[in-house]
Amino acid sequence: MPPPADILKVAIEWPGAFPKLMEIDQKKPLSAIIKEAQMAQQLYERVQSTSLDVKLDGLKELANSSRDVTFAQEFINLDGITLLTQMVESGTDFGEMLSFTLTAFVELMDHGIVSWDTFSVAFIKKIASFVCKSSMDSAVLQRSLAILESMVLNSQDLYQKVAQEITIGQLMPHLQGTDQDIQTYTIAVINALFLKAPEEKRQEMSHILAQKQLRSIILQNVIRSTKPINEEMAHQLYMLQVLTFNLLEDRMMTKMDPQDQAQRDIIFELRRIAFDVECDSNNSGSIDKRKSMYTRDYKKLGFINHVNPAVDFTQIPPGMLALDNMLYFARHHQDSYIRIVLENSSREDKHECPFGRSSIELTKMLCEILKVGELPSENCHDFHPMFFTHDRSFVEFFCICIQLLNKTWKEMRATSEDFNKVMQVVREQITRALTAKPNSLDQFKSRLQNLSYTEILKIRQSERMNQEDFQSRPILELREKIQPEIMELIKQQRLNRLCEGTCFRKISSRRRQDKFWYCRLSPNHKVLHYGDLEESPQGEVPHDSLQDKLPVADIKAVVTGKDCPHMKEKGALKQNKEVLELAFSILYESDEYLNFIAPDKHEYCVWTDGLNALLGKEMTSEFTRSDLDTLLNMEMKLRLLDLENIQIPEAPPPIPKEPSNYDFVYDCN
After folding, report:
1. pTM of the full structure
2. What is the pLDDT of residues 378-387, one digit of tens each?
3. Rounded CA gap, 62 and 36, in Å?
């Protein structure tokens, strides 16, 4: 990717010093550049002072100044990163001094100017030693965990070295404390190691995590802690949940081999448990008689292929994962398993709920709902506490849902022709129950009890009532007529939102990023104002506090997703689908760009719609379609009420005053 046109590389020589090749931003005043260079030089010298007080003050100021990208570039040009790593490796600094050194290092590396691949084994060992010590200053521990996470995420070579230096057992004590920031950084390091581990190592790492009781430690010390879970912790728990479920992908994508006797024995075991029969091939009776008996039992078990049910498991997904779930259910919930199989085998053929087929389709559905096999989203916090309450949470989840499916089948009085309809209802029951974020599997089960088929019908009816009477021809013609007026209303709303502005997080190799920048449109819609912020703002940021400007007339195009320059760069976090869906860039002049990653999907749609509106292009986001539909429906209802001569007040009714005396009763007589 070409450098911005305003950045110029210049060789500068000072008297008595080696020449330096520096990058100069031509948009910045020369006086500001000189000031930054002088400040960088002064701090470079102060942090090497023999006076401890001067050195400490210098490191403190360095940690604060390193947040600024221009200063960071100047300090790095002085070989400042090497200086800091040597100071850490020397082991002479402790406590506050070491904390400021590591903070400055983290801030400098976050700008992405220096590659993570350049660090020595000695430096990695030193950072790892801070994490492995039983008692360590909390600030030093936090920075050390952050550095290890960034190393693992940004370099496969460093992943190998970090994995050799720290063990899961050494990280566990940090989760048992009360500092949620330390807990968050610790889980982030575990997630990073999990994410970058080769596929063959992930199962092994999962077993180690189980042995060290990671799940129960997180449940007791984090999820059930008296402290509320903050946004970043919620994200890390979601990451761990996704990475754990993704271990199922291998089984999900493995077809059954109909010739594999060990795999066929699992099906024999399902038959044995259900019908209390021995599967001895040497038992009495002719071969034809035994085949007939097996075919009859496999039909009762609900397989599609009664002769060779192994063929049912050649569909991927869900592959062998479905058979794993069925066997677990049969062994660990034996009474429920036998009841479902025998209950359905005694019904009329057309009303039986096929256990085998249902289990296979349900497993596939659950994998879709939990997005098994997909990379975790960079902006999601959607973890489910109930999945941290059991070591085999996915298969226990299946066991609850297969019983729900059987119950719903009976409530719907379904036949084999209704199979897909039943699966749709079950999906709705499960997804609605999950939105309540139950704290345990028992709570999830209770939530499903309240979402019977009758209740789902009521919910659907209520939702359908909002869409009635809008499909007749006169209504459709009226909708078409007023649509341009509504689109103009949406356009104005989008532009007003751009005028209010949005706070964006700066792009970095490290996810936990507390650096922000703000962008907003001028009231006359002619200029975009933007600039860096020290912290997340409370409310709008005034135009005059934003240093940079971009005239709307200079904008050539707005690109999104993979077409964005910052998404074409290779990075540990850039391949994520969710990040791609939130990325957009403004291209201006010949080869310059302003890169964004929206905080959420709504802001992404607001900005891409607003920018397209500024450029005179069509607004095509999903939120525009949704808003258009909502506003059209509202306008149609108002006009229909007007036809019925129902007066609609101009102002909303007043909010009732709070009663001064709550000591009252209602006389039912």
Report:
1. 0.78
2. 778 899 999 9
3. 12
